[in-house]
Design goal:
mainly beta; 1 helix; 9 strands
Length: about 100
């Protein structure tokens, strides 16, 4: 299990952690409504189990941009947001990115 699970009520707005290009926004069997952002320089964020995605592939989002709402799609036992960050394909703790943005 890579990344962090944030327990939030279904329908909670999910904002972009930093400026990025949306590279994927689709429903997948295991991860449900899935969103993939490319922040540049090999940094990628992925969000799983979303209830709804409000951005499209090819769209550029800015930091704190509302992009989706939380949910329990895919294989999820309760509403939450799963956020994972990869740097050049290596999983890193997303809390590092949170600290950089504050």
């Amino acid at each position: 299990h890579r990344g962090m699970d944030y327990e939030v009520a279904s329908g909670t707005v999910v904002q972009a952690p930093a400026g990025a290009l949306v590279v994927m926004a689709a429903g997948l069997p295991l991860t449900g409504q899935t969103l993939v952002l490319h922040h540049g320089q090999g940094v990628v964020s992925v969000f799983f189990h979303l209830g709804r995605i409000d951005v499209r592939p090819g769209q550029v989002v800015e930091s704190r941009w509302p992009m989706a709402v939380s949910g329990d799609t895919g294989i999820a036992s309760e509403p939450h947001v799963h956020w994972a960050v990869y740097v050049h394909g290596v999983a890193v703790d997303p809390r590092v990115m949170e600290r950089l943005l504050d």
